[in-house]
Amino acid sequence: MNDVIETRGLVKRFGTVTALDGLDLVVAAGQIHGFLGPNGAGKSTTIRILLGLARGDAGTATVFGAHPWTDAVALHRRIAYVPGDVSLWPNLTGGEAIDLVSRLRGGTADKPGYAARKARLMEAFELDPAKKGRTYSKGNRQKVALVAAFATEAQLYILDEPTSGLDPLMGAVFEQEIGRVAAAGATVLLSSHILSEVEQLCGKVSIIRAGQCVETGTLDSLRHLTRTEVSFAADGLGPAQLAAIPAAHDVSVSGGRVRFTADSDQLNAVLPVLATLNVAGLTINPPSLEELFLRHYGDGAAPGGAS
Amino acid sequence: MNTVGILLRQRLRRDRWQLAAWVLGVGLLALFAAAAIAQTFGNDADRAQILALAIATPAILMLRGLPEGSPVGAFTYFSVFAFLALLATLIHGAIANILMALAVTVGFIIGKLDAGGSLCAGVAVGAVGLSFLGVGLVAAQFMRTSRGANGTAAALVVAAYIVRGIGDAASTAGSDPLHRVAGWPSWLSPIGWGQQTGAFVRNNYAPLAINVSFAAACAAAVFALQARRDTGASMLPVRAGRADARASLRTSLALGWRLQWPSIAGWSAAGAATGLLAGSLANILQAAGGGNTSLLNAVRSIVPGTTQTPTQLIIAAMFSVVGVLAAACATQAVIRLRQEEVRGTAEAVLAAPVHRVRWFADYLVLGLVAVVLVLLAAGVASAASGLAAGAGGTVVGDSFAAAAAQLPAALVYLAVVSLLFVLVPEATVAAGWGLLVLGMILGIYGGMVGLPQWARNISPFQHTPVPFGVNTQWAGGIWMLVIAAVVVAAATLLMGRRPLHSG
Lengths: 307, 503
What we know:
- The complex is a heterodimer.
- By secondary structure, chain A is of the alpha/beta class.
- Chain A is built from 11 helices and 13 strands.
- In chain A, the strands form 3 sheets. Chain A has a 6-stranded mixed beta sheet, with helices on both faces. In chain A, strands 11-12-10-13 form a 4-stranded antiparallel beta sheet, with no helix packed on it.
- In chain A, a hairpin with a 2-residue loop joins β1 and β2.
- The longest helix of chain A has 16 residues, at about 170-185.
- Chain B is mostly helical.
- Chain B has 2 domains: about 10-230, no CATH class; about 250-495, no CATH class.
- Chain B has helices at about 1-40, 45-55, 60-65, 70-90, 95-110, 115-140, 145-170, 190-195, 205-230, 250-290, 295-300, 310-345, 345-350, 355-390, 395-405, 405-425, 430-450, 455, 475-495, and strands at about 170-175, 180.
- In chain B, strands 1-2 form a two-stranded antiparallel ribbon.
- In chain B, α12 (about 310-345) packs antiparallel against α17.
- Chain B is globular, with a radius of gyration of 24 Å.
- The two termini of chain B are about 40 Å apart.
- The interface of A and B includes residues 51, 81, 87, 91 and 131 of A.
């Protein structure tokens, strides 16, 4: 059994609202798996089911081959979790909350080791642990949860939009920590709607929309579905010359620049033509998840249409 | 001005139900007090007798205030003003205080008291509320959090109550044996000023000018401070806490204790205070002799069953209050579960290796411990104060028996509210407190207002055994223990299937 997380046809309804509508999600051991989708797509609901905080209405979900609801306690010894909106006890300091969660997870048996890990993370995230929970800002609450998650070793990290509220500097610290646990062999499920973060970290990505998985695969395989954006200065180039460029889609001229997109595997046919036109100020942007994302969530995109 | 109007309307809209409930509740309290006193202490001689007893007991003067003669209006004012004033400090806003003053006035008038006195009493309650509105606003300037500001303001209310209590306990004899003149400390307290109106007797509005000036001074101070302070900042710096948790904070039970011990200590202190009063009152009543039949009858309407001595009767009556405190403490322990769930902090515990049933059971265990602590505090305090007042050794056994008898009803509340939490989480808080108030009204005051027996029987408190006398009915207590056990078992079983409901 090489899959750490596996859901098949997972359905979850809240009254008349269907939050998950037959979700299939497979995360293999050792992956950093990006879990993308807009607000309300069902990311948090999926995570709550995987953590045994809620139960699915139909379909199956397994974590490490076990049932997340019935085997919750055994599974939670192997899982670290960071919620998207961290709540802290108003009267406990951040340091107390971190110690409590780590102890509940049994991660403090090696006391000096735990103290060293906690101190290192506290410094890296620049967190003041002596403040009461109610006085932390959103970003600092998020840091408390991140330190608590990384201060004890886990085999699976489930992170629900963990960097919301963090500044970019702390985002970099977060990426370092993810790299560290991944190098140690842990599996990571990273829910996010920050595409650059997912592009940077994740080997595999699943995109969900309206409770269904609409796209899943490695970043490279998904990039084949996208187009590269090309632009250059419009100086002296007429419509006839532009029309001669092969495989160009959506050609437009504005602000003195020509822009078009091309299928990524057609790019080699485009470049010689650009050379003969002697274009200036050429930029070629590789396909981004942004574009992939917009294809699925932009106007008129049909749910599940591309999968 | 238009902006003020919009803000005011938004505020009223936000608080309208809470405000309506408070104003209505205070008005009804005034009405019930007037009606109950007219019924229980119908004639002048009865009231004079009780007042003589109260004047001989500084503890009662401290709690209630100062009597100004035995006419029914003056007697009612003596009985309830201090409580009404306390309630008035809990609401915020000048308009709210005006509404509350009206509610008290109308409540007393419907209760067939003199209109002039009723108005004076109402205005006095509103003026005290206004003073503490000022206190609350100043506290808000100094504290970083609303919790800190509320805590400070509440502490100042309690201080004002106690200062007035000390002044009243140190009062001197007035024009006749049933009049008392307040000691100087009463003049340091806004509640004391309200009391000095002597509503129904003198109807003197002058002391209320101090309340109003005090509120105005507070408001002026707030404007002065506001001009110097950044929005969101506070005049006092926030203290730092611990960077590491104590070694004991390592289980969900330890977390529950950490979150709840201040409120458990509060309920226990209230239990101890009630016990203290029970022990000392019991002895005074004993000394006053059994001749005061109207008082004994009044007490008897609270206590079901038959009892032997007046001492035991007063202990049983006071411990019915302890029973309510214990049940309230149990209710709050379960409500914490719901608060943890809604706040999202329960998720942090349940995403760790803590079984949901274990988490639930931890809070029930804490509830049980809390109930036992409240009862123990009351028992010890009652026994000690009884002994100190020279009541003889039996008061020890009586106190602890009366305390133990309250356990079943409190456990019924623990069980029923926990079942509510499992089955209808959204209703836990409102229904939990609602059931407590209902049980209190039906079971404890039901006899006073003459409710039919079947209605009174709905309340668990009605079935609390009175462990004195020849034919003690233990069956009620045993049945309640059985019911509590069955309900807790069902709730625990169902908890195993219950997902987290954060909404």
